[in-house]
Every structure is written in C-alpha cells, then in structure tokens.
C-alpha cells in the first residue's frame, strides 16, 4: 500500500475492501433504476442543494476541469449527514428497496474506509493512528458534521445533438476534466459484472491517472475497489501520499456507472499545513468552484 500510494496516489484493494459483493451489486442496480427516471422527475424529487451538497446533480451542472462542464454526467449525492432526505426521495421515485440498497452501501463502505484509514495511518507513520481514524469516524464524534458523501454517477451516451466538439479520433470524449479529489481518500466501486479477465477489451475503463506526463488507464479488476489519495491526505502526510490528477475519458456512445465514497474528516478538523483552514472550509471552497463553473485549483 505505501509503495503504490506514494508513487501514484492510487491502489486497488481486493474483495471490495470488505464490502459484501451483494451490497455493491444491489447499489448499482438501484442507482441505474433511479437514473432511468426522466430529468424533470429527478430534479423535482431531490434537486442538488448547495448548503448540504445533497441531492440530484443534473447533466451540465458540475465542472471538474477547466475547459467545459462534465459531459453527459449526472450524479446523486448522499452525504453522510443528510442522506435520509435523499434516500426518501429515491424511495418515492423508484422503490424503498433501492433506497435501502444505497443506504447499505453507504454504511458498509464507510466502515471499510475506517479500516483502510488505520492501515494508511500506519503506512505513513502517523504518531497517533487512533486519532487519525477518529477524525473521520462518525461514532467517535456523533455531534460533528462531515463532508463524507456517497455519489452514484452516470455518464450517458453522447450524440451529435449534444453539441460536443471534443470527440477524439478514437471516438472518446473527456467526460470529467482533470482534477484531484477534495477529501482524505476516495473508494471507487466500478460495475465489473461484464468483465472477463481473459478479454482485455472488457477490462477497459474510462478512469485515467496522470503518471509523469502520461495518462494511464486504470483497468477494471473484478472484486476490487479503487482507492485514491485526496487533497487532505496529501496534506496530512506532508506530501508522502500525492493527491494525483485524474480524469474520466471514454467512448461517447457508452454508458458508464460508478459508485464513489468520498471520505472527509469532521468539518472542524484543522488542515495541518494550511493554518486557519478547516476541512469543512476546504470542501466548501472546492464545491463552490466545481458547481459555479469556476476552475478549481489542484
């Protein structure tokens, strides 16, 4: 872990880092059913709110890179602190079982994240691993708020009528611009149910990581979760673990689904190497840049 995280800021963990397979599959099915609803219905059910970062983010609303809004991307944000409201909207839009499936992944992935943070704390030689983990643990500070959020993500096929001008010669389009993640770590679950380890084409994914001067694709490996370092772990480790630029670039004609848990410390935790700045302040500034279209600085 230390070697991979210190070289690229990305690594894979087997067995979904302890999250049961059936929980991951059920959450993907639930997200797909929600995104099948028409946009008007999704916005009416739970439009994204800036104050809580909760709800449905419509196509064209978010911009992670500097050139244009994320292409064909919609999302459902379930922050740890306000997930109940969004889950109620999901239940009303599709089915209560779908809301339960997303809630189960939020809980299981959050528990897996705490175990990973303990291992990361040991790998970076933190003087107080327990305090490092507790800074992210809801049970350690029940009254504390946090930006930890599960996001269901869907990139829909793009047609000529969508006005996309940046389609490459190989038919690919930049779906989400180059960015770093804002929090401590991210757990990215990819739908691997169509993957054949003996067929390289089936393991291709749209996630690309900048290594040196090259964009490297992160292949889909069955039963793994991608873990990447965010800005606050980069700070916490004093640069030992880099927060690496990455992007989503894939075929314009393909659907892509992903489920990502963005793990943040409690909002009041001070950013170690940025005096006067808290984790909550940092997240709010990055979200404001992403959703207003102002280019975010990495």
TrEMBL record:
Nucleotide-binding as UniProt keyword: no
Domain Fe2OG dioxygenase: 146-265
Keyword annotations from UniProtKB, A to Z: Iron, Metal-binding, Oxidoreductase
Superkingdom in the source lineage: Eukaryota
UniProt cross-references to Gene3D superfamilies, sorted A to Z: B-lactam Antibiotic, Isopenicillin N Synthase, Chain
Pfam families for this protein: 2OG-FeII_Oxy (PF03171), DIOX_N (PF14226)
A single GO molecular function term of this UniProt record: metal ion binding
Family of this protein: Belongs to the iron/ascorbate-dependent oxidoreductase family.
Name this protein carries in UniProt: 2OG-Fe(II) oxygenase family Oxidoreductase
Organism expressing this protein natively: Thecamonas trahens ATCC 50062
Taxonomic classification: Eukaryota, Apusozoa, Apusomonadida, Apusomonadidae, Thecamonas
């Amino acid at each position: 872990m230390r070697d991979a995280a210190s070289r690229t800021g990305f690594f894979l963990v087997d067995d979904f880092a302890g999250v049961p397979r059936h929980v991951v599959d059920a959450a993907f099915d639930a997200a797909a059913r929600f995104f099948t609803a028409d946009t008007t219905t999704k916005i009416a059910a739970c439009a994204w709110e800036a104050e809580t970062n909760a709800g449905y983010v419509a196509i064209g609303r978010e911009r992670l890179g500097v050139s244009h809004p994320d292409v064909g991307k919609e999302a459902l944000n379930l922050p740890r602190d306000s997930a109940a409201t969004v889950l109620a909207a999901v239940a009303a839009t599709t089915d209560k079982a779908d809301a339960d499936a997303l809630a189960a992944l939020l809980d299981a992935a959050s528990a897996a994240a705490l175990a990973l943070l303990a291992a990361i704390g040991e790998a970076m030689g933190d003087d107080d691993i327990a305090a490092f983990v507790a800074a992210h643990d809801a049970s350690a500070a029940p009254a504390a708020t946090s930006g930890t959020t599960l996001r269901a993500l869907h990139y829909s096929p793009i047609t000529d009528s969508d006005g996309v001008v940046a389609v490459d010669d190989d038919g690919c389009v930049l779906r989400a611009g180059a960015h770093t993640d804002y929090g401590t770590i991210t757990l990215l679950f990819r739908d691997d149910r169509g993957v054949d380890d003996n067929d390289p084409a089936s393991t291709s994914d749209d996630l690309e990581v900048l290594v040196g001067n090259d964009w490297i694709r992160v292949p889909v490996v069955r039963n793994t979760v991608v873990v990447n370092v965010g800005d606050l772990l980069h700070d916490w480790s004093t640069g030992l673990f880099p927060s690496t630029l990455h992007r989503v670039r894939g075929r314009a004609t393909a659907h892509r689904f992903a489920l990502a848990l963005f793990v943040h410390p409690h909002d009041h935790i001070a950013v170690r190497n940025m005096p006067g700045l808290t984790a909550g302040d940092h997240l709010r500034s990055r979200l404001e840049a992403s959703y207003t279209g102002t280019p975010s600085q990495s």
